[in-house]
Amino acid sequence: MEQCKIDRINELTRLTRCRELTAEETAERQILREEYLSEWRTGTKATLDRVYILDEKGNKRKLTK
User: Fold this and answer.
1) Alpha-carbon distance values, 41 to 3, 20, 21, 24 (Å)
2) What are the E-state strand segments in 1-65?
3) What is the C-alpha separation between 21 and 18, in angstroms, rounded?
4) Could you report the per-residue pLDDT of 32-65, keeping only the tens digit for each?
5) 23-49 vs 3-18: helix crossing angle, rounded to 10
6) pLDDT at 65
7) Can you say whether residue 53 is alpha, beta or left, with left for phi > 0 and alpha for psi between -120 and 50 degrees?
8) Which of 44, 28, 38 shows the shortest CA–CA distance to 9?
């Protein structure tokens, strides 16, 4: 996710501490959050797909759900 989008999420969050967001701002924040979480999940899944576990006998096996 581009840094400008993350900055916008942070800016909208700061605004909620001062005032209520408009309907457009709330919708924008929700869309940006969903995009951020989607990319985070994709990256985390890719990382975990490369993880292997060593059992007691020293055998490598893929991490399962």
Assistant:
1) 17, 29, 27, 26
2) 52-54, 60-62
3) 9
4) 999 999 999 999 999 999 999 998 898 999 888 7
5) 130
6) 75
7) beta
8) 28
Angle at 2 between CA 5 and CA 44, to 5 degrees: 105
Q: How far apart are alpha carbons 54 and 65 in whole angstroms?
A: 16
Q: Judge contact between 62 and 48, C-beta under 8 A.
A: no
pLDDT of residue 9: 95
| The total number of residues written for the chain in this structure | 65
Compute, in degrees rounded to 10, the torsion defined by CA atoms 6, 7, 8, 11.
130
